[in-house]
Amino acid sequence: MDASAAESLGTACTRVEERIQAALGEQEKGASIEFESCLDVPKGGVLCALPALLSNGLLNDIEHHLGKLTGYYQTFHILLLLAFMGLCRIKNAEQLREHAPGEFGKLLGLDRVPEVRCLRTKVKGLSDPESVESWAADLSRQWMENEPEAAGTLYIDGHVRVYHGHLTKLPKRHVSREKLCLRGITDYWVNDGTGRPFFVVEKTVDPGLLKTLEEDIVPRLLKDIPNQPSAQALQQNKQACRFILVFDREGYSPAFFRKMWDKHRVACMTYHKFPTENWPLDNFSGQEITLPSGEKVIMKLAERGSLVGTKKQAMWMREVRKLTDSGHQTSIITTAYELELTAVSGRMFSRWCQENFFRYMKHHYGIDILQEYGIEPLSDTQKVVNPDRRQQEGQRIRYNPNSITVYLDLQRWNFIR
User: Fold this and answer.
1) Are the C-beta atoms of 156 and 189 separated by less than 8 Å?
2) Between 331 and which of 40, 275, 288, 386 could a Cys-Cys bridge form, CB atoms 3.0 to 4.6 Å apart?
3) pLDDT value, residue 385
């Protein structure tokens, strides 16, 4: 039947009347979804994921945010198709050519899925940057409201999508997985403790993690994260924070930690970039750690108060160290003053869930692939850090005797400076 239909309108185009009406503009609601009895449906297992897709808001207010498509295929048809393509590990529209359009259409309750050029046209019609950003922000808020505890501690890290074309010369940045400096776009992902993403911030010209946190991520989180303590509660409890940000050593900056705490009461957590000599071994004791995933592990931990930074940038923080079997001491600094010792270690050492997320998404969904086919001018001039200056500043701080961290050895302490 699918083959015979090709003689008139095309392969598997069996709904002739509906398609003609859509072409003449007489069918505003588009094609109706009709599931028919079949002996077998290739890739039919993706239908089992449909309830999960809907509960995560795939079709919530899509016409309000993305607009309404005209013709045979409507907005919800295209979004469902893209979702099913992702579940089937079809990473781009071109790969859809390798699958029978009529068989894939049965998953949507249609006679066939759109041809690749038609799909690209439809996707382009839904890809207005402001509309997509509005829809993504609405979904992000919904996910945070559904799981406010998961939104209390957030993991931030950058992922570079490398550009190998010749249409433009994007700024170079270091790609850790390639161990090279390559041209590309940096995406800063915000995930929860188990690796699930809340949103992503794209930076064509990368100003760095700290600048992106301060100008893009933190202002958005202050508006979106539910159940934040009130100003009165923060005034009464000097150690309370609104939420916790966890990131790698790229975000190490005592000045940034201080600014986030003084201005927003946002706690930060990262590895200590310049720890001093090792602590005595008798300071460490075995602790049972419950990771955000629910896994329980035993770690040897110790804690002290530390004055981190120099001059006006210095700030008292908590320093937690983990003793490994080899004798190495991994140092963590944080301004999450109320968090239990075991929770500090559990959340910091769960940061690898985000690395696992990148690896999984890269392999199965191609998040490091640039899907765009054109270029556009930058809206405005943007300032970035000179790499040579950053290297020289790092050397100056590393060898400055005034930057030695001062420790205060206290088993239990409660102070804020």
Assistant:
1) yes
2) 275
3) 61
- 140 sits in which H/E element: helix 129-146
Q: How many residues comprise the chain?
A: 417
For the ranges 42-46, 90-94, 409-413, the lowest mean pLDDT is seen at 409-413
308 burial type by CB count under 10 A (0-12 exposed, 13-18 middle, 19+ buried): buried
First-to-final CA distance of the chain: 77
Strand partners, 158: 188
Could you tell me whether strands 267-271 and 329-334 are parallel, antiparallel, or unpaired per DSSP bridges?
antiparallel
CA 304 to chain centre: 32
Residue 307 bridge partners (DSSP): 316, 406
Q: Which amino acid is at 268?
A: C
Q: Which of 228, 267, 253 is nearest to 416 (CA)?
A: 267
pLDDT at 25: 82
360 CA to centre of own chain: 13
> In the chain, what percentage of residues exceed pLDDT 70?
86
Beta strands in 37-179 (DSSP E): 153-162, 172-175
For residue 201, what is the enclosing H or E element? strand 197-203
The b-or-e profile of 12-47 (16+ CB within 10 A means b, else e) is bbbbeebbeebeeeebeebbeeeeeeeeeeebeebe
Burial class (CB in 10 A: 0-12, 13-18, 19+), 400: exposed
Residue 163, pLDDT score: 81
Tokens 């001093």 — which residue? 276
